Amino acid sequence: MAKKYVYFFGDGKADGNASMKELLGGKGANLAEMCNLGIPVPPGFTITTEMCTYYYQKNKTVPKELEKDVDEAVAKVEKIMGAKFGDTKNPLLFSVRSGARSSMPGMMETVLNVGLTSETISGMIDQTHNERFVYDAYRRLIAMYSDVVMEKAAGVEPADGHGVREQLEHELEKMKKARGYNFDTDLTADDLKELVEIYKAKVKQVLGKTFPDNPKEQLWGGVKAVFQSWMGKRAISYRRIENIPDDWGTAVNVQAMVFGNMGDDSATGVAFTRNPATGENVFYGEWLPNAQGEDVVAGIRTPNPINKAGKTEDTEHLSSLEESMPKLYKQLDSIEKKLERHYKDMQDIEFTIQKGRLWMLQTRVGKRNGPAAVRMAVEMCQEKLIDKKTAVMRVKPSQLDELLHPMVDPEAEKKARELAKGLPAGPGGANGMIVFTADAAEAWAKEGKAVILVRNETSPEDVHGMHAAAAILTAKGGMTSHAALVARGWGKCCIVGCSALQIDARKKQLSVNGRWLKEGDWISLNGTRGRVYEGKLALVQPDLEHNKLYQKLMTWADEIRELGIRTNADRPEDAAQARAFGAEGIGLCRTEHMFFDPERIMAMREMIVAENETDRRKAVMKLLPFQRKDFYGILKAMKGLPVTIRLLDPPLHEFVNLDEKQVKELSKKLGITEEKLKARVESLHELNPMLGHRGCRLGIAYPEITEMQARAIFEAAADLTKEGVKVYPEVMVPLTGIYTEFDNQKSIIDRMAKEVMKEKNVKFKYLVGTMIEIPRACVTANEIAKTAEFFSFGTNDLTQTTFGFSRDDIGGFLPYYLEHNILPNDPFQSLDQNGVGQLVEMGVKRGRSVRAELKIGICGEHGGDPDSIDFCHRAGLNYVSCSPFRVPIARLAAARAAIQNGPQKK
Ligand code: PEP
Ligand code: MG
Fold first, then answer.
1. Is 793 helix (H, G, I), strand (E, B) or coil?
2. What is the pLDDT of residue 183?
3. Which position among 859, 862, 872, 873 bears the catalytic label?
4. 448 in helix, strand or coil?
5. Stretch 244-257: mean pLDDT
6. The pairing of beta strand 586-590 with beta strand 642-646
7. Is 482 a catalytic residue?
């Protein structure tokens, strides 16, 4: 049977359903589903994403059969609507919209009012008895079609940057000005009739082609333009940011037009079944009487709240749909409830009311920010709409990250000078320097500056700058405007509809309530309250401890996950912070960070430049009391939990970067000449220090260092044990590549433990294990695990040594690699599962082949990366260790990994 490329929906029946998103796109699948649910949907049909793929494979053509299928589908719609496409008496009009598998707000094209021609226009006027309305629709069609189909899809680059749409807008403004009008709505039917002719002439002049006067030509132009827009610059750039593959393609939805701008009994709106900014379980949305859908989202008019519950201080005076059209509101409310119950998730819906009749145009899972995601997930589970696992899967690790984000310091806010109010579209706080264009935002952010992108409104062309900015502020638009939608998706602080702003982007300045600000001036935003402040206000971290919803979600994550979560911390404060975030131990305590304060560094330097063992031992022993205190603090902060302490790792020359003054001081202290000291330091210089005398190679060459560190750990452990504090020290040898290296160090450590326990007459448990961060260690893990009691993968060094990429110098070529798809992402951020991952798997398998109970963790940066955590679950690791602020994310990611992959194989 020939492949089915066209799926019909209408009149309570549809060929497709919600499970067919890959084929029909999100919009098409959901239109079909709504239809099947008996919800009023204008009839239409979806051309599949496979056709988009075909279109690109077959040199931008479509097969002959498609035309036949489309004709048949058009005939079905005609039958339901009782109107005919291209008919001069009772014409049917279509909307043509894109619809990819996952929503890409505003990234692709739409053409409305398709089918209006010089011949059908009179029929339309007869049907609506509204000449003005019809000519307005015609004008909109010409503007949209010439822009989307004749310019963008045709690949025409506008001369001097002014596209045809902008030039048509200019004609509109010219007419309004000449006739003394303020609003588009002031234009009369005759004005619009004239304007339509001006538009057509302008299109011809700018693009050298006539606007098509044939309904079928318009329809096919629209369909192909949607396919073309899949490969448009904006869509590609959005897909890169969101990691959406290019080969998914978009579907095309062709649907009978319904009009929200047919008079005062018509309206249009966008709504959410719960508040997408807070997660609160209230129907939330915006509407405009007598308007087309695009008017709500484009931010041209600030819309009204949909119900009384959604009114704020600023919108109190506006009439809600609940008040203006109570019956229709009730119908809409029952539909939104039905949709949420059916989909078991918050829905983002679009509707139109045409002459007192409600039509649903779209439903999809609504985007939400982090705090809202957590609230909805937990409350929906408590309402028994979803189970715990679904609730955990509903919150992305990046959304949880938003909860850890800063807010404007309330104290600073009280004292700050408020510049203006706007709508709170994306919560959290931010400060930054004003920039007026997306390009400037991107460029300044690249230089490491914090910027706030300030615009009248944003459009999909701005996404790169919106992504780079710390926050977004717009003068126009509502809570469902482009800026609000995109910011919410990314969890970015955002304020929209801040009407007091008068922006002059060309002069790079703005005025707001009598103040002038220019590019580079600092402002601060409270996105939760919609307040804009002058200057740079301090930001504070939010209080997770008292956030009950967050705590609940985390309890569920903890019940589900199998991976343990530890933290990388070398100071008691960090350890305590991580513990508060839920860390179950320390996976990596880097001892080298402890040597940099003035007193210690001197002893350290003495040790390093010592020429014989006696001098070195003397110097090393000066460090013992310091180290004992360090370990005492950390072990105490983590009482009852394991603490992995790693022995000294970096090359010694890092500690003897001396200036002239320091050379003088140290040489005096040591009683040697400056020349001699310099010569000693020089002798430590290595051409390739990362592959040089570091890691366990230090402790092997200078056993007294290992002795001192092991003794300090065990003395601290002994003292705490005597105080009744439970301690579990795990001593970790760095950079092992050969089992003999490990055995050498282990014998010193064990000897020290024995000595200390005897001296202090106390017993405690401890383990001795190793970092696995050299490929050879993975390959020979079965030899190392004979004596090593635990492994911890140091994937920073393992990535470095597997790729042969210097972890400190990769910045020189990584951007090029990413841009040219040579690497999919930075392997130092997200584990290279195919390469480095195989070594990890080998290490796990071989290690456990000789010691079945071998405890294995990871402590490289990857321990806090959700994709890498998923890998660690699959690889059968016992725990991941990450920086304190990643701990909540790691807990959630570990639970998601358990749900997605099922139980661990150990
Ligand atoms: C590692 O190499 O992954 C590691 C954790 O050690 P460091 O980053 O200190 O080299
Ligand atoms: Mg390392």
1. strand
2. 81
3. 859
4. coil
5. 91
6. parallel
7. yes
CA of 704 to the centre of ligand 1 (A): 23
Q: Whose CA is nearest to atom 4 of ligand 1?
A: 794
Q: Are 882 and 568 in contact (CB under 8 A)?
A: yes
| Ligand 1 atom with minimal separation from the 800 CA | 2
Token pair belonging to 502: 């008068």
Q: What are 376's two structure tokens?
A: 């909805």
Enumerate residues 6+ apart whose C-beta is below 8 A from 377: 386, 390, 391, 392, 394, 395, 553
252 CA to middle of ligand 1, Å?
A: 50
Does pTM surpass 0.70?
yes
Q: Please answer whether residues 825 and 819 qualify as being in contact, where contact means their C-beta atoms are separated by less than 8 angstroms.
A: no
Residue-level pLDDT at 301: 67
Say which amino acid occupies 360.
Answer: M
Give the nearest ligand 1 atom to 590 CA: 9
Across the chain, mean pLDDT equals 92
Average pLDDT over residues 749-763: 98
In degrees rounded to 5, what are phi and psi of residue 515?
-105, 145
Q: Which residues pair with 114 in a beta bridge?
A: 94
Q: How far is the CA of 820 from the centre of ligand 2 (A)?
A: 29
Could you give the CA distance from residue 374 to residue 551 in angstroms, rounded to a whole number? 10
Asked if 464 is an active-site residue, the reply is no
Atom 10 of ligand 1, nearest CA residue: 797
In contact, 664 and 674? CB cutoff 8 Å: yes
Q: What is the pLDDT of residue 546?
A: 87
Contacts with 613 (C-beta within 8 Å, 6 or more apart), sequence order? 704
Nearest CA to ligand 1 atom 8: 796
Name the token pair of 149: 């189909």
Q: What is the mean predicted confidence (pLDDT) over 241-269?
A: 90
Q: How confident is the model at residue 105 (pLDDT cuts 50, 70, 90)?
A: low
Percent of the chain with pLDDT over 90: 72
Which ligand 1 atom is at minimum distance from the Cα of 588?
5
Indicate which residue of 482, 653, 862, 873 is catalytic. Answer: 482
**Measured in angstroms, how far is the CA atom of residue 735 from the centroid of ligand 2?**
7
Residue 33 vs residues 50, 95, 173, 294: alpha-carbon distances, Å:
20, 19, 42, 24
Tokens of 839: 């070594």
Distance 796 CA to ligand 2 centre (A): 6
d(CA 521, CA 419): 13
pLDDT of residue 680: 87
| DSSP secondary structure, 643-689, as one string | EEEEPP-S-GGGG----HHHHHHHHHHHT--HHHHHHHHHHH--SSG
Please identify, by atom number, the ligand 1 atom nearest to the C-alpha of residue 592: 9
Query: Residue 659, class by beta-carbon neighbours within 10 Å (0-12 exposed, 13-18 middle, 19+ buried)?
Result: exposed
User: What CA–CA distances, in Å, run from 856 to 387, 731, 769, 781, 840?
Assistant: 31, 14, 10, 12, 10
Nearest one of 339, 457, 400, 328 to 37, comparing CA atoms: 339
**Using one digit for the tens of pLDDT, what is the confidence trace for 497-508?**
898 999 998 899
Q: Residue 299: pLDDT above 60?
A: no
pLDDT given at position 300: 59
Task: Enumerate residues lining ligand 1, CB below 6 A.
Answer: 588, 590, 649, 773, 794-797, 859-860
Which residue blocks in 146-188 are alpha helix, DSSP H? 164-178
Look at the alpha carbons of 213, 216, 222, 225 in this order and tell me if their dihedral is positive or negative.
negative
DSSP character string of 717-760? HHHHHHTT---EEEEEE-S--SHHHHHHHHHHHHHHHHHHHHHH
